Amino acid sequence: MRIFAAFALVAALALPPAASANSKGDCDTISLVAELVMKSHQVGVPMTDIMGNLGEHFSEIIIAAYDTPRFQTQAQKDRSVAEFRDKMTVACYKGEISVPDGAKP
Q1: How far is CA 4 from the centre of its chain?
Q2: Residue 43 has what DSSP assignment?
Q3: Number of neighbours of residue 79 by Cβ within 10 angstroms
Q4: From CA 43, how far away is CA 99, in angstroms rounded?
Q5: Cα 95 to Cα 29, 47, 85, 92, distances in angstroms
Q6: 2 pLDDT above the threshold of 80
Q7: Alpha helices, DSSP H only, in the chain?
Q8: Does residue 70 contact residue 47 with C-beta atoms inside 8 Å?
Q9: pLDDT in tens, 75-97
Q10: 70: how many CB neighbours lie within 10 A of its CB?
Q11: What residue range is the signal peptide (predicted)?
């Protein structure tokens, strides 16, 4: 539960000041959320816990993370987290995903 509480706090604090869609700030937020969601998935945090707190704004990222397998070794988990974070960040810069207006301050 500590990881989840820290995750929620970091995600809330990471939201950038008002910025246009797909700005560097938005994509930094997407990157952070994607990394923290995948880390939570890899350590076994239930998807319902994440959806209950962030699903309103980031359900696309959460579903994509939980649609990937959980790995056994720490090296595999770390690689999965990094690859997912980077995939979501690229998608943000391409304009395929963005921080919803309701998630911006």
Answers
A1: 12
A2: T
A3: 12
A4: 25
A5: 14, 25, 15, 5
A6: no
A7: 2-14, 24-42, 47-66, 74-93
A8: no
A9: 999 999 999 999 999 999 999 99
A10: 12
A11: 1-21
